[in-house]
Amino acid sequence: xxxxxxxxxxxxGYVSSVSASSNAQDDGECVFCVxxxxxxxxxxxxxxxxxxxxxxxxxxxxxxGHLLVLPRRHVAGIGDLGDDEYRDFSEAIRSTAVxxxxxxxxxxxxxxxxxxxxxxxGIPKHLHGHVLPRWIGDTNFMTSIGETRVLPESLQSTWQxxxxxx
Length: 166
What we know:
The chain is α+β, with helices and mostly antiparallel strands. It has a single domain (about 10-165), classed as HIT family, subunit A (2-Layer Sandwich), CATH 3.30.428.10. The chain has helices at about 10-15, 20-25, 30-35, 85-105, 140-145, 155-165, and strands spanning about 45-50, 55, 65-70, 110, 130-135.
């Protein structure tokens, strides 16, 4: 069976943008480090924070409810986390998954990380995990052929649905 390939060229603008490129370097201001200091509110997209980790909306979501879980410290890989940071980060991923299940009632969840540029990380210098709800049939013509994502809610609506659960 041949491998089917679909283009996601609509993502190129983000991945190759000046801000994404500068955030991939150690010499640029990291957008995630800035977010780690922002208040928890709709304007920032930050939903939850501990001393070591935080959860925020993905500004470029693949679908409704797409969240990012990050350590507050600027590290690139899982192995760079201390034991307490790793436990806190892992707990934050679990809490985020539970919150998405409660808020959205999805058919499933994607939980994962792209570690390094070769693995698809848009900002590889700051470790982050993706947690997003999925539904049977949520990849349709618009996504597969039309190279377009249809998001049925605003980021503010996503924040409001999830904040109470985090």
